[in-house]
Amino acid sequence: MADLLLGQTLRFEGSPTLEGPGAARHSARGGVLIEDGRIAAVGEADDLRLAHPGARVTDYGDALISAGFIDAHAHYPQTAMIASWGKRLIDWLNSYTFPEEMRFSDPDYAAEIARTYFDLTISNGTTTVCSYCTIHPASVDAFFSEARQRGVRAYAGKTCMDRNAPEGLRDTARSAYDDSKRLRDRWHGTDRLSYVITPRFSPTSTEEQLEALGALWAESPGLLMQTHLSEQTDEVAWVRSLFPSLRDYLDTYERFGLLGSGGLYGHAIYLEPREHARLKEVDASLIHCPTSNTFIGSGLFDMDGMTRADYRVGLATDTGGGSSFSMLRTMAAAYEIAQLRHRALHPSELWWLATQGSARALHAEDRIGNLALGLEADIVVIDLASTPSIAQRSARASDIWEALFPTIMMGDDRATKAVWIGGKPV
Ligand code: GUN
Ligand code: ZN
């Protein structure tokens, strides 16, 4: 039976950065028809009711129906150590992250955290995540098993590290290749799951490992590859000292076959002109992780420059370097960082980044991230008056953007009125 969801609706027909807020389409009384897990129609509520009298109607009143949020870079194993105090990147990894990731040698612990992680992200309206796992193959099994059971479209890969990580948290060039390949064959393309080749970042991989993973990527058409790039100045200096003969940080990926379309580069704050040019040339995706960039003190991503140059830019929590599971909080941080660079991102741009922008970064914009005919029905319904502080402000709004912006800036999981995944209510 078809489902008809009624409420305010928000969808996009283009990028608001390139075309202005008019690229968004808002209806004050719209509807979304869902059939067989996909969006079968989007339009005005009255028209859809008349055209589909047999559909089961769920009326969300004046709540806002949107594509679900897409978190393009997260570390589900860092769920239980989010908000760890007082360190910058390298010390933060050594003090908090690695000891926690060590615990994932226990598959039961991995399963428990995967469950908690999906509970938290879905309750925040996130319907797709692209996550790192740990070096343990079972951490990938735990993540994908949980995702599969919930029917979500999800992306993940085994994090590969064969140096500069503690004993017990290192693989080898050979085992990273073999395990990644085995996990790819087990999971990629089953239900809604996609395997992602995942070297953590060049400081924790030898040249042999980077080369092996580059070879695997070359043998895996259609696979994404994710890693970190130029997040902190100390890290960039460390990479220079580890790879003295290479031109720059990006070159540590480029030389080993790890630069290309389908490459997802997290952070990308401190880029040289050559790196900019190459990333653009190959149509790589840059993933902005704003709460992480402020929380671990990394710096200010150049959203204005990147979106104007029409890079594929995704938005992400980077949980638990990022300090939130919420894509609303993440949009707010992206707004604040852009403000520090004298650019006010419009609410339509923020919403686009958290849905279409991230989908485009994952090369999945023809499947998810918008309310459009034929797309998979992953939907979030947002209460635009979820707390007293938001309600008193949105009550004054004269248009959808003024009504939405208080939720972007002050909203959390209380704003999630409903979530639909693959055409089914959660
Ligand atoms: N660089 C390498 N690993 C990590 C990580 O786990 N989080 C963040 N924010 N940066 C990284
Ligand atoms: Zn990260």
From TrEMBL:
Keyword presence, Hydrolase: yes
Catalysed conversion reaction: guanine + H2O + H(+) = xanthine + NH4(+)
Pathways involved: Purine metabolism; guanine degradation; xanthine from guanine: step 1/1
Cofactor(s) it depends on: Zn(2+)
Amidohydrolase-related domain: residues covered: 65-426
Aminodeoxyfutalosine deaminase/Imidazolonepropionase-like composite domain residues: 30-55
Record keywords, A-Z: Hydrolase, Metal-binding, Zinc
Class of the enzyme per the UniProt entry, highest EC level: hydrolase
SUPFAM superfamilies reported in the protein's UniProt record: Composite domain of metallo-dependent hydrolases (SSF51338), Metallo-dependent hydrolases (SSF51556)
Keyword Manganese: no
Manner of cofactor binding, per the entry note: Binds 1 zinc ion per subunit.
Database matches in InterPro entries: Amidohydro-rel, Guanine_deaminase, Metal-dep_hydrolase_composite, Metal_Hydrolase, Metallo-dep_hydrolases, MQNX/HUTI_composite_N
GO molecular function (one): guanine deaminase activity
E.C. numbers: 3.5.4.3
Family designation: Belongs to the metallo-dependent hydrolases superfamily. ATZ/TRZ family.
Described purpose of this protein according to its UniProt entry: Catalyzes the hydrolytic deamination of guanine, producing xanthine and ammonia.
Classification via PANTHER family: GUANINE DEAMINASE (PTHR11271)
Name assigned to this protein: Guanine deaminase
